[in-house]
């Protein structure tokens, strides 16, 4: 009984300390430092700016889309499905952004296409990591030259998706940067 009370207390203490540890400095967003182990990522305002700019381009060219913004690890930061966008494209948009992040923003999803055709050197890489998307619509986002996240768009042709994803990135940074 004594032991079990102690365990419960320890667990409660550990859990209540966790949010504090995780909230180390939530005001620090994209202050680019010099420590190579620091991970910089889009903050929520930047993610929303990307979504808003992509939605504006989608409305302009009249292509309903799903747009996903992921962090540099490929985890979702923001998502929008515009009216009438394909439901099947939800997953594709998220996986496009994730595909770019899983390779450190070094390659767009469109640039994978030729490399992953039957007989080409990286054929079947799309079967790894739970499914990569290897056609256009996923682009990296760099701010001040640093890779900070990825944008995936799905709903139009690959050219339209790329155009919309790029418009999103352009709102906060660039699709080009140091890898
Ligand atoms: C958190 O980060 C902000 C912005 O970089 C900085 O001004 C502030 O001093 C930091 N706070 C702590 C407690 O480190
Ligand atoms: C992919 O291959 C096609 C046909 O060979 C070529 O026209 C195109 O430029 C290639 N795309 C890239 C990104 O290398």
From TrEMBL:
Entry protein name: Uncharacterized protein
Pfam family, one: HbpS-like
Keyword Zinc appears in the UniProt entry: no
Key words of the record: Signal
Keyword Iron-sulfur included in the entry's annotation: no
Signal sequence extent: 1-23
InterPro entries given in the database record: GlcG_carb_metab_protein, PduO/GlcC-like, PduO/GlcC-like_sf
Coiled coil: none
């Amino acid at each position: 009984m004594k032991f079990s009370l102690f365990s419960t207390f320890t667990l409660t203490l550990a859990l209540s300390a966790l949010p504090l540890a995780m909230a180390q400095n939530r005001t620090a967003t994209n202050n680019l430092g010099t420590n190579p182990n620091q991970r910089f990522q889009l903050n929520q305002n930047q993610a929303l700016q990307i979504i808003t700019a992509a939605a504006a381009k989608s409305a302009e060219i009249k292509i309903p889309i799903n747009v996903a913004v992921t962090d540099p690890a490929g985890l979702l930061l923001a998502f929008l499905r515009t009216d009438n966008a394909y439901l099947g494209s939800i997953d594709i948009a998220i996986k496009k952004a994730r595909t770019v992040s899983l390779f450190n923003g070094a390659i767009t999803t469109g640039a994978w296409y030729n490399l992953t055709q039957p007989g080409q050197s990286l054929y079947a890489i799309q079967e790894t990591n739970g499914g990569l998307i290897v056609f256009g619509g996923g682009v990296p986002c760099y701010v001040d030259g640093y890779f900070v996240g990825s944008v995936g768009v799905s709903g139009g042709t690959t050219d339209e998706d790329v155009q919309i994803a790029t418009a999103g990135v352009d709102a906060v940074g660039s699709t080009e940067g140091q890898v």
